[in-house]
Amino acid sequence: MNNRKTCKNRGRFLLPSYRHRAGAPRCSGLSGPGLFCFGLLCFGLLLPPVLGAQRRVDETALQRAREETEIILDLGRLIGFVHRMTRESPELDLGSDQAREMLEILDEIRGTRRMTPTQARRAMERIEDTILTHAQLAYTDRLWINAQRDARRNTQNSHGESASSGTGTGTGTGTGTASRAGDGSVSSSRQGTGADASAPAGSLASYASGGPYNPMAEAGRRQAEELTALYDHLLTRLAR
Asked: pTM to 2 decimals?
């Protein structure tokens, strides 16, 4: 009897140690501050992958926004070239009917908080296919080609100065011809030129998140200043 009782008691007192050896978790040591520190450790291990994934998502969204807004910046460049044409070649200035049509487009742009690629493409097609004459379009094409050439030259010079050896190479071709065959296409070679070659990060973030985006109506932007200058010129033209 005594032996059986001793064995029974021994088995009962050895039970926790046996369970531990069998691989069952023991959490009695993690309580209070220890448990809190363990939680912080787990959070710290999980945080970098989460932040890295979020950063990749943000970069992808910004890259997509940069590509989508390129046609919007192209519209701003075209408007700037039209204004420059009216100053440099008065004989190519817009006539009364042209000025009225252009003012309609400029009014619509100025009143748009969020410019979309579809709106920009439609405006460019209307300007190139129905408003500008062949001579005016050829002049703006030359300005576009020169701007692309200057941009490539600046890129090459910048790469040459920063590189310890070799020379930088620019990218892109500068045919700069716009279609007037009625196919509604806008020349894809007219991209990435001028001082507004890409939108500021803040503007891109706003566009990517569905917020307002219109560089032609944003105070302090060169494209906004050129649009305003052309707008005022056309109003003066019609008032004569």
From this structure: 0.63
